[in-house]
Design brief:
There is one protein chain. Helix 4 packs antiparallel against helix 8. The termini are far apart. Helix content is 45%, strand content 17%. 39% of the residues are buried. The radius of gyration is 28 Å and the shape is globular. Strand 14, helix 13 and strand 15 form a beta-alpha-beta unit. The strands form 3 sheets. The protein has a 5-stranded mixed β-sheet with strand order 1-5-4-3-2, sandwiched between helices. The chain has a 5-stranded antiparallel β-sheet with strand order 7-6-10-9-8, sandwiched between helices. Strands 12-13-11-14-15 form a 5-stranded mixed β-sheet. It is an alpha/beta fold and 500 residues long. The longest helix has 21 residues.
Length: 500
């Protein structure tokens, strides 16, 4: 039986670094891709091809229109796409504008040629690209015999050693001998992140390396080559987290397991919903179900249409940082948010770490990312209740984009009130139905008056009206509805009803 070919989706996953996003996909991402072609508007378009546009703008639109007629599977366009590409009956990918069309096509052909529907290295390639993004270097992941398992997309600055390693699929023996002579292997086995000095005679630029281990058993290593600029100040932290994640992936590769990060994500969802045996799920995922866990949620605050793709990319980044902070941390994309279950033996939620994480994500994503800390679940089965609080907290602070993080204690009243309002919305007979006759101005006026505890001057200032105007409106509202604002119960019910 012939193996199924690569789809647009699988190529996007393989090219996660060079592909910046999905512009449009009216027919989905399941179309098979048979070839990769760099083309101009007048060039022939092979059916089932990924067409790479050399430039953007009107020329890219003309090429894409031709691709639709020719039966292409997708079009890749550099940089910010023209609006004319969004309405085409074709998948359109936005790719890194720093890459020439021929460079991107070469990467796509490599992914096409090496496609395997049961490829167990895919998660490692994705991890390598994430580490490259976070450190600013060029990354390769090797097994214990110095054979290359995965690597980040190449770009300018790759040294001779990098090229030899990737082309030959293993590290040159001369460099391995150099590492042994310097004692690098021993330091890696001891758990250090090691800086390896530049060796021009061996064609090697400055590097950092960390070992991949399962307990005391060495499984391989992660290498980051410095390019023109120094590596990120957080590179050591990134490498330590990546090494913990890589240990899981490499173990799966070595054991022949077909389990993937996607499978793990689906299982982890059960911990959030409580629909399955939480203790059994936790053990399966390698987490002690009796360990207290902090329940954290992150909102990317993206405005792009392609939220799931961006959420997946952010999940990779958060996974690396979370793994560096706590072994066995779980990062779970769900309902447009990222949830982090962080083992917390101390019982004290890590607010400072979450603020640092959110600040890093804001810089990385360029969006006003916000985080919430719902609290610490005493064991895994208590997670679903806190998960609801985590998402509610993010709703509460959404109107304050300058706020990085909030916890349950500081937002408790607003969170509980939102749940009350939601409850009432589903049961109209519990609301004060007399207020339904009010128009929008009257509802705003009454709400402001009640929120100000009857302080007309303060409420009028917020509404930008004269105090006498507001007094007249309140008298009119009471006359229309029969509302008695001297009655505390009526005031409370009116205040809540106006929020529904």
């Amino acid at each position: 039986m012939s193996r199924p070919g690569p789809t647009v989706k699988s190529l996007m996953e393989a090219l996660e670094g060079p592909v910046h996003g999905l512009v449009s996909a009216p027919r989905g991402l399941d179309a098979l891709v048979h070839s990769v072609v760099v083309a101009h508007p007048d060039d022939p378009v092979p059916p089932g091809s990924l067409i790479v546009a050399p430039t953007g703008g009107a020329e890219a639109v003309a090429l894409a229109e031709r691709a639709v007629r020719g039966g292409a599977s997708a079009v890749a366009v550099p940089g910010t796409p023209d609006d004319g590409l969004r309405d085409l009956d074709l998948a359109v990918l936005s790719v890194d504008p720093a890459l020439a069309a021929t460079e991107f096509a070469a990467l796509a052909r490599t992914a096409l040629d090496s496609f395997d529907p049961e490829d167990r290295h895919r998660d490692l390639f994705s991890l390598a690209q994430t580490v490259a993004t976070l450190t600013g270097g060029i990354v390769s992941i090797e097994d214990g015999a110095n054979r290359v398992l995965a690597y980040s997309a190449s770009h300018e600055g790759a040294d001779e050693l990098r090229q030899q390693t990737i082309l030959g699929r293993d590290c040159p023996s001369s460099f391995i001998a150099h590492l042994r002579a310097w004692g690098v292997d021993e330091r890696i086995r001891a758990g250090e992140v090691v800086e390896v000095a530049e060796r021009p005679d061996l064609g090697a630029s400055r590097r950092r390396v960390v070992g991949i281990r399962a307990g005391d058993r060495p499984l391989g290593s992660i290498w980051v080559q410095q390019v023109e600029r120094p590596l990120s100040p957080t590179s050591d932290q990134v490498l330590r987290g990546a090494a913990r994640l890589a240990a899981v992936h490499v173990s799966r590769v070595n054991s022949g397991s077909r389990a993937s990060g996607h499978d793990t994500g689906e299982l982890s969802m059960g911990l959030l919903t409580g629909a399955f045996d939480s203790d059994a799920l936790a053990r399966h995922l390698g987490v002690d179900p009796a360990t207290p866990v902090s329940v954290i949620a992150l909102a990317l605050r993206e405005e792009e249409v392609d939220q799931p793709w961006r959420l997946h990319q952010a999940a990779e980044v958060v996974s690396v940082y979370a793994a560096a902070y706590r072994r066995n941390a779980l990062v779970i994309p769900a309902c447009g948010l990222l949830y982090v279950l962080l083992p917390t033996p101390s019982g004290q939620a890590p607010l400072t770490w979450v603020r640092e994480l959110v600040a890093m994500l804001r810089q990385h994503n360029g969006t006003p990312v916000q985080g919430s800390v719902a609290g610490v679940a005493p064991r895994m089965r208590a997670v679903p209740g806190l998960k609801k609080h985590a998402s509610r907290i993010l709703e509460v602070i959404s109107d304050d984009p300058d706020r990085l993080v909030a916890d349950y204690e500081e937002t408790r009243s607003s969170v509980v009130l939102r749940e009350v309002v939601e409850y009432l919305a589903e049961r109209p007979h519990l609301r004060d139905e007399r207020l339904d006759s009010l128009d929008d101005d009257q509802r705003r006026s009454l709400s402001a008056y009640l929120d100000a505890f009857g302080d007309v001057t303060s409420a009028a200032t917020g509404l930008h009206v004269h105090p006498n105007t507001l007094r007249h409106r309140i008298r009119r509202i009471c006359a229309l509805t029969g509302l008695d604002l001297d009655d505390a119960d009526q005031r409370l019910l009116a205040s809540v009803s106006l929020r529904v």
